[in-house]
Amino acid sequence: MLVNLFSIIADNDFIKFKMSKKIKYTVEYPVRCSPAILFEFLSTSSGLQEWFADKVEDENGRFSFSWSETAEEAEVVEIEENKRIRFHWLDSSKDEFFEFSIERYEVTNQTILVIHDFAEKKDIKDQSQLWEAQVKELFHRLGS
User: Fold this and answer.
1) Cα separation, 142 vs 136, whole angstroms
2) 20 pLDDT tier (thresholds 50, 70, 90)
3) Quick one: pLDDT at residue 15?
4) Rama region for 82: left / alpha / beta (φ>0; ψ in -120 to 50; rest)
5) What is the pLDDT of residues 88-122, one digit of tens each?
6) Which residue in 143, 142, 133, 144 sits closest to 53, CA to CA?
7) Which of 10, 25, 90, 103 has the maximum number of C-beta atoms within 10 A of its C-beta?
8) How far apart are CA 21 and CA 101, in angstroms?
9) Which among 119, 43, 114, 40 is positioned nearest to 77, based on CA atoms?
10) CB neighbours (10 Å) of residue 72?
11) How far from chain centre, in Å, is Cα 46?
12) Are strands 84-89 and 62-67 parallel, antiparallel or unpaired?
């Protein structure tokens, strides 16, 4: 009976996990470098390994990211050279993604890194802070 009760609890937790709806959020950062250089750091395994993950491997648009003892895989679903790249985590819902886009404000001639990601509403603040730390490392690598 204990095994059956555990199975029911595990099944209910799985259902709750799968049903939790993540929402899209956006963070923006002004960057002092050219869009072409920034795009290298956002779209290549060597560039991403500089700031985003401890180890990054790319095989035909499928990226493997490793941090300490955690690993995740994502595939590139959209790319526009020097403008944006969209990744989809393989273990997430089909409509969820994370995207780096580069915008250029003509009036100020400023380059902006825009990051779109998904998180549960209660986690957006923490996830935004995580992006802030990651982007800070990116800026350090860019000398920005």
Assistant:
1) 10
2) low
3) 44
4) left
5) 999 999 999 999 999 988 888 899 999 999 999 99
6) 133
7) 25
8) 24
9) 43
10) 15
11) 16
12) unpaired
Six token digits for residue 44: 């290549």
Burial environment of residue 46 by CB neighbours within 10 A (0 to 12, 13 to 18, 19 or more): exposed
- Identify the CA nearest to 53 among candidates 40, 39, 64: 64
Mapped to the 3 state alphabet, what secondary structure does the chain carry? CHHHHHHHHHHHHHHHHHHCCCEEEEEEEEECCCHHHHHHHHHCHHHHHHHCCCEEEEECCEEEEEECCEEEEEEEEEEECCCEEEEEECCCCCCCCEEEEEEEECCCCEEEEEEEEEECHHHHHHHHHHHHHHHHHHHHHHCC
- Locate 117 and state its tokens: 């990601």
Domain 23-142 has CATH 3.20.20.80: no
- Sorted by where each begins, the domain ranges of the chain are 23-142
| One-letter identity of residue 127 | Q
Beta-carbon contacts of 36 under 8 Å, excluding residues fewer than 6 positions away, are 82
